[in-house]
Design the sequence.
């Protein structure tokens, strides 16, 4: 049987890859896909093994650190139907180390690296575009709708930079939230979300910021195309300085 199945999680993908690469000598004709639980689904199901996935990822970090980062960013993209490409990518990474990301003539490498880089760029961009607003209870709230599931690394980033404040990051699209409270970071799903009211100070600060943003701009040097490249319009919904321009 050349078709294998896994549960769709990143741990399941690593578990399956670890087993396949240890048992199969030739993987070019092997397919790895997410299990759909249909009646006539064909393939050998490989159950998730947390220990095996951790050991394989540790091996990847030692032998191909860049590939480990690529896998991490790839999982944020939540792309379906790319199990086979990732299996081939991991196989090449174990063989060639971190330089595997330069082997873009391999279709699997090009696919995985392209997806991972897009997720990485959005994560980097949101570190600068996320806007925290002060609520009436003194905590800060930032809302976002990213293409990729980046809330965990984004929350880790701000837990190091906003340690003295209590704050929330809410992913509207996925209905998940990160909370930083008294030095503790928590993540979870939210079934129903009602945004609390802004504090009076926050309303004044936002008004001042909008005035500053509009006043400091030099009309002769406006470059809308460049601005939209650095600050895409899909993010404007939650940018204080761009309200009213959607």
Sequence:
């Amino acid at each position: 049987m050349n078709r294998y199945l896994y549960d769709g999680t990143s741990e399941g993908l690593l578990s399956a890859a670890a087993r396949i690469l240890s048992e199969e000598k030739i993987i070019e004709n092997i397919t790895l896909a997410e299990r759909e639980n249909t009646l006539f689904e064909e393939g050998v199901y490989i159950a998730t093994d947390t220990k095996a996935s951790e050991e394989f990822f540790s091996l990847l970090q030692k032998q191909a650190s860049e590939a480990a980062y690529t896998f991490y960013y790839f999982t944020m993209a939540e792309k379906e139907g790319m199990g086979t490409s990732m299996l081939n990518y991991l196989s090449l990474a174990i063989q060639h180390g971190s330089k595997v990301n330069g082997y873009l003539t391999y279709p699997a490498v090009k696919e995985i690296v392209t997806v991972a880089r897009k997720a990485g760029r959005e994560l980097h961009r949101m570190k600068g575009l996320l806007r925290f607003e002060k609520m009436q209870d003194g905590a800060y709230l930032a809302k976002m709708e990213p293409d990729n599931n980046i809330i965990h690394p984004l929350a880790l980033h701000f837990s190091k930079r906003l340690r003295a404040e209590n704050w929330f990051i809410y992913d509207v699209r996925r209905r998940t939230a990160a909370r930083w409270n008294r030095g503790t970071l928590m993540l979870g799903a939210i079934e129903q979300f009602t945004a609390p009211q802004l504090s009076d100070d926050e309303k004044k600060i936002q008004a001042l910021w909008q005035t500053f943003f509009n006043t400091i701009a030099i009309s002769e040097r406006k470059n809308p195309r460049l601005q939209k490249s650095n600050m895409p319009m899909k993010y404007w919904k939650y940018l204080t300085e761009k309200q009213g321009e959607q």
